[in-house]
TrEMBL record:
Pfam families given in the database record: Methyltransf_25 (PF13649)
A GO BP annotation: methylation
Signal peptide: none
Gene3D superfamilies: Vaccinia Virus protein VP39
Keyword Methyltransferase: yes
Protein's name according to its UniProt entry: SAM-dependent methyltransferase
InterPro entries (UniProt xref): Methyltransf_25, SAM-dependent_MTases_sf
Occurrences of domain Methyltransferase (ranges): 63-161
Organism: Actinopolyspora mortivallis
Length: 216
């Protein structure tokens, strides 16, 4: 397929809008890494707005994003964050980290595993986080990995800290999906849920507050 550009025929791909280019990048990464990406397309703007509404808007908050991917939530998070705030993205895929650094220079994009959350934040000189936004594929993680990452989130959050997680709605009935919900209830005093239908597939948005004291 071709399109007109300055009077010449150019391949359709060269005329992609930035949004379409993001889709292509996400989809290609998902094809190569299905279990770590865990979705075929980036989340919608509707989801990004829902997530951003839950974030602090005053002071100098630190917001940590686990699995920012191509940055579909990051724009909205960044817009919401006060100018003196800090936005740290921890992404497992190195190509995506390079992309994020170029696309969102205001976010500190780090190539790391969410399992190294505490170590990574210490390395960046971050003592605590006011909010954690996570869209890593929780429902595909083994029980001990889910628990380990959640435990680190609980430890790095301030007492007023907020935690959000996005999971595919159909996965809520899978064993790992149910286990994740149970783990959230053992980690936070309040666990709110909201379904965001304006995404393919619909997503379950967990909004949690009140990190509980350490478990024995
Ligand atoms: C479902 S995608 C979500 C991407 C983006 N936040 C969005 O909403 O469109 C999951 C992302 O988490 C990343 N990821 C998966 N496991 C991770 C881990 N253990 N640590 C950091 N990032 C991880 C993947 O590489 C991928 O970019």
């Amino acid at each position: 397929m071709t399109a007109q550009h300055h009077g010449k025929h150019v391949p359709r791909r060269m005329t992609d809008s930035p949004a379409l280019a993001e889709y292509r990048r996400f989809f290609a990464t998902a094809l190569r890494n299905p279990t770590t990406v865990g979705a075929a397309t980036p989340t919608s703007k509707a989801v990004a707005r829902t997530v951003a509404r839950f974030l602090p808007t005053t002071g100098s908050p630190t917001v940590v994003e686990l699995g920012p991917g191509t940055g579909s939530l990051s724009d909205e998070i960044h817009t919401r964050l006060p100018a003196t705030g800090r936005h740290v993205g921890i992404e497992l895929n190195e190509d995506l980290v390079r992309h994020l650094r170029a696309r969102l220079p205001g976010m500190e994009s780090v190539h790391a595993d969410a399992r190294e959350l505490r170590h990574t934040l210490t390395r960046l000189g971050v003592d605590s986080a006011d909010a954690i936004v996570s869209s890593i594929p929780w429902s595909l993680l083994a029980a001990d990995v889910q628990r380990d990452i959640l435990d680190q989130c609980r430890r790095v959050l301030t007492p007023e800290g907020r935690f959000t997680a996005l999971t595919c709605l159909p996965m809520q009935h899978s064993p790992a999906g149910k286990r994740f919900r149970t783990e959230l209830h053992s980690t936070f005093a309040e666990v709110g849920t909201r379904i965001v239908w304006r995404n393919l597939p619909p997503l379950l948005h967990y909004a949690c507050t009140g990190p509980l004291p350490e478990r024995d």
